[in-house]
What does this fold into?
Amino acid sequence: MKIEDVVCTFCGCLCDDLVVEVEGDMVVNVENGCTLANKKFMGNNRLKTPIKRDGGNWKKVGLDEAIQTAAGILLDADRPLLYGWSGTHGEAQTIGVHMAELLGAVIDNTSTVCHGPSIMAIQEVGHPGCTLGQVKNRADVIVYWGANPIEAHPRHMSRYTTYADGFFLKEAFRERKVIVVDIRKTETANIADEFIMVEPGADYALLSALRAIVRGKGDVLPRTVAGVEKEQLIRVADICMSAKFGAMFFGLGLTMSRGKYKNIRNAIELTEELNRHTKFTISPMRGHWNVYGSNEVFTWITGYPFAVDFARGIAFYNPGETTSVDILKRGECDACLVVGSDPGAHFPGDCCRHLADIPTIQIDPHVNATTHLSRLQIPVAVTGIDAEGTAYRMDGVPIRTRKVIDTTYPSDSEVLDKIYQIIRKET
Amino acid sequence: MRVTLETKPRKKPNIPIEAESIIPHNFLRGTDLSVYEGNKQRSLDEIFFITVEGPAVSPDQVEVILKGDTGRIKRVGEYMNAGKIVVEGDIGMHCGNFMSAGQITVRGNADAWLGREMRGGEIVCHGNAGHYCGAGYRGEKRGMRGGRLEVLGNAGDFLAEYLCGGEVIIHGDTGDLPGVEMRGGKLVIEGSCTRPCGNMSGGTCLVFGQVHDLLPTFEKRERTQVDFRGMNVTMDTYHGDVANRGKGSLLVRSGDHA
It folds into this structure.
């Protein structure tokens, strides 16, 4: 059976035009998907039943026992950490936030290691952004800064930018100019009209220089900035100022390099400066498919987008203090619940060691690096394949993901709700 | 009155303690105070051995001494308005948040956000200070607004972010972007630093050590002479941050920036 208009749940693009062929409880073919989508829909290696560490070995346990164990660990903790959330649907994220409030826990999502700095910058100076639809139909200048969509968001350029014809751009490939800023010549840089190779860690200086040029203060600048000739910067500033509609997209090359959120703030302020001359927008290239959703859900319930600390019964937020990496590095938390993420694969070694030292529970369909640090893992359905739920695209548009196969796995929401009900009775 | 708080051994010593109740003013009413250890509220005597010596009728007559394993105790001296706090060892984050008067002495190192949004009074840290020393809270447009904050060792990144008033003096080196977004006040760095005063719009920053990666958006002006520890030092003067229409002054010891 072929199912049309299926939403991909891999990256923040949330492509909603996939055609998935299903036989029984297996996906056997995916059309329109990128390599990443195909792997996600057709992958296996699913954990069959909950597993619990028994000395040096794993033993299979029933779902009820696993849920009781998980609730017990979280109830016993003085500083539990609930981490992940970007790989699951909004309904599960909502239960997670309510659980954190009852437990007096810290709840954090994967923004902490990706676009958290983008949000911090937005909190300082706002966000002149737009939807991907606006970009597709209007933008004649595209800037990718510290992002490599050809490899990380493979259909971004064909659906929304370089190769996507829009209402006002009938021949997008010829009419759009693409500027790429990166520390190395990436695949995306190869198709750019202008490639700026910036010295590693010098993006802040480059952004400041561009702001000065756009303001008419280019005479203050030296002959080269961050390894880039001043002439090229003036040329790029001219392209941006003469655009009918410009759209800048930035990735982890900007958020996670030296300066972090100050880089993003500088990029936003450059965008604001460009808006004195033309229409220009800026947007983050969000990675995990529903990381934007976790920011939305956390914000509408707590007022803060990530790193929310409920230890005092009210929400407190301070990246650097209440962020997962910092809490784990300092060895603060005494229990951890991981949902829809794999910190074992992404976090620094010290953090992983602490996860292995404390009782860590993982709710995830697959065996992954975090499994090896955990004491308990509960397998669940994969949202967008055997469970449905709401997710947010990288531009903040909510999209309902579909269930394409039937399996016996419970969804994240079902498992979390059972744990939540036990905690609610005990607190 | 002298109040001595010495930490008791804890089963989970890494769990942070939030202790904004530790300010001289509160001890005029006794020691029946509470703090938070993780998500559990504890009375002060569950965490500390408490000794009280002598009387006091006003908070400026109260001296609080913290001893033992104090490096995980946060928010000590928050909203402090008089008196004295002496920390014999290290202190946790947010020491002296919003303090308006009084004195805090830290004999060891201070964790991040030392003197956050401080309004007045004096903080002296004999060791090193962490990131965001003398800075503001997330999204806050104004950091330290008054008082004096002196660190005898080094300071971390984002020192004096959003500095608006008062004086910050660092005897050692600092991390990245000291004085970023600063709007007023005076920042003195006796050691070296990286990318000072990004996006500054006002205030004065003096760097007597080496500046690494000076931002390109500072406009060089005339040289000037400054008194530094009794010596007459020649300083290069920069105006900026031009990217931000800034009117701040950055003075760097002549010949010491790359």
Remarks:
- Chain A touches chain B through 42 residues (CB under 8 Å).
- Residues 139 and 245 of chain A are 5 Å apart (CA to CA).
